[in-house]
Amino acid sequence: MSTIWFFEDANLFKVLCPHKFRNYKKDHDFDAYKKSDYIYFEEDSANKVYLIEKGKVKIGYYSENGNEVVKAILTRGELFGEKAILGEDRRTEFAQSVDNATSICPIGVQTMHDLMRDNQTFSLKVYKFIGLRFKRLERRLQLLLFKDTKTRLLEFLDELKEDFGYCCPNTGDTVIQHPYTQRDIANLIGTSRPTLNIIMNELKESNKIDFNRREIRLKIVA
User: Fold this and answer.
1) Cα(175)–Cα(137) distance, rounded to whole angstroms?
2) pTM for this structure?
3) Which fold has domain 147-218?
4) Separation between Cα atoms, residue 126 and residue 85, nearest integer Å
5) CA 50 to CA 74: how far, in whole Å?
């Protein structure tokens, strides 16, 4: 099953970042950001796309009443600002560094178009990514509108399992080693961190999961 919450199998940084191409290497630099720094704001000019070389980036927007809505939290190898490829002139979301040492590879839209024109395989990967991103956001909206918080968490864990899970040979449990904090997860499923804590502890007490700061274990139900 294709992942909904993350781009499934392509670390685009490996094949796209301009410093890997002779024609672009001499003019290319990375941009460094600390925690809470913004890469761009809503209404900024959309003239670049970005690849994450290191760290995490939060994508979101502010509702009419000023509440922050988090659409995605992205990690190394993932692309954002991709709607500029499709002709978006102004940003409809913000991008903000989540880590203290985030490194971003900025790519001008024209450079991106040149790379896509010259590399059909890469072009297909980019369009696949954009399609999956739209499907993911549509699915997430459905979850936020129609499912309760516990169900949203369980479905999110099921998606995490696809990307970061493996079967423990000793117990048969699924162990998920993921890069997200509890605050990240709370933001992604549209709840508060205290509420997430309560639900995760309820699931732990009922022996459905176990967790620590580095991993979540999905228990086999006897």
Assistant:
1) 26
2) 0.70
3) Arc Repressor Mutant, subunit A (1.10.10)
4) 10
5) 11
Rounded CA gap, 172 and 168, in Å?
A: 5
Q: Give residue 29's pLDDT.
A: 72
- Give the gyration radius of the chain's Cα atoms: 19
Residue 55 and residue 91 in contact, taking contact as beta carbons nearer than 8 Å? no
Q: Where in the chain is the domain with CATH 2.60.120.10?
A: 12-141
Q: Taking a C-beta distance cutoff of 8 angstroms, is the pair 122, 63 a contact?
A: no
Q: Tens of pLDDT along 95-120?
A: 999 989 999 988 888 888 887 887 77
Distances (CA, A) of 134 to 52, 72, 127: 19, 12, 11
Q: Where exactly does CATH 1.10.10.10 map onto the chain?
A: 147-218
Question: What CATH number was assigned to the domain covering residues 12-141?
Answer: 2.60.120.10
d(Cα 148, Cα 151) in Å, to the nearest integer?
5
Largest CA distance in the chain: 59
Give the pLDDT confidence of 198-211 residue by residue, as tens digits.
999 999 999 999 99
